[in-house]
Amino acid sequence: MLNNEILHYWLKFTSWKTNILLVLIITPYSQVYASPYLNLKTSSGDFSIELFEETAPITVNNFLTYVESKRYDGTVIHRSLPNFVVQGGWLGYDESQNSLNEIVLEETIRNEYNISNIRGTIAMAKLAGDPNSASSQWFINLDDNSANLNAQNGGFTVFGRVVGDGMNIVDKIAALNTYVLNTNTLGRLSDFPLANFSGNISSDNFVTISSVSKIKEITEPNYYHEKSKELRIQVNAGGSDVYSLAFSIEKSVPDVVFKLELSSMHVLEKKLEKAAVFTSSSGLLLIPELYVRGIVAFRNLELSLIDPVRFLFKLESFERL
Fold first, then answer.
1. pLDDT digit string (tens) for 70-79?
2. Are 48 and 36 within 8 A, CB to CB?
3. What is the pLDDT of residues 120-173, one digit of tens each?
4. Which of 17, 29, 141, 192 is deepest in the core (most CB within 10 A)?
5. Which residues contact 73 (CB under 8 A, 6 or more apart)?
6. Do 93 and 194 fall into the same domain?
7. What's the total number of domains in the chain?
């Protein structure tokens, strides 16, 4: 049995239709972490992103260079196009001078297009006609832009995704009215999102990213992620490929049903021990171990694919420790 001061798990049986709800009560625990996740604190609310280090190492390293040097702190979202993208990572606002100023840029990086530009993914912006011109600017896909962005300019490099309910914040930003700003040094800036704008610019009008910070993250292959309320697993789907996937909780009554988040899918370079296994012929996904805060909490979770169109999986059975 696990130490009750660290972690408690139990099954709660409800009288209504004898529904079974899985309840997790978690207390603080210390563990060794990696840092493939970031939290973006903005004036419109906070959201977190997962970085795809395996599939876009150059791009992730470049992004983290800007993060660690604090150059993204104080930048503003400078472009928003409905049902397309919101974009940032370029300009900061100097209230004392009432001016928008470019951040200091690194050298441009090589294109690493590997993953589709679907809703919720974050990718690098670049110059038209130059696949290897990405520097600091990034954008979040508001819709499935794969037909457009995968095919042009060498493909736009996806290097991460918004996790959990973070797209609610991104959609809130995207819902703001946009304006044309005429600047002395940068020229005409179109599609600029501003909040409560009445004609006189102030810092309150901008969607400002005050900080970008790393989130400590468990490195086990299969685990429950508290902040996003997702299952993060690595799956062997046959052959040599292993995929990193995330499942959100679609519903918990009367059955526990998980939804595969397509934006989370990417191929890992190496196969890890105790990866989950998906058998396409039966539609069964077997997770040998599931960690919560560094501790093995469940074994032999069996999920069945019940809706291949919406990618829904039903929790069929598990062993509780």
1. 999 999 999 9
2. no
3. 999 999 999 999 999 999 999 999 999 999 999 999 999 999 998 899 999 999
4. 141
5. 209, 210, 211, 212
6. yes
7. 2
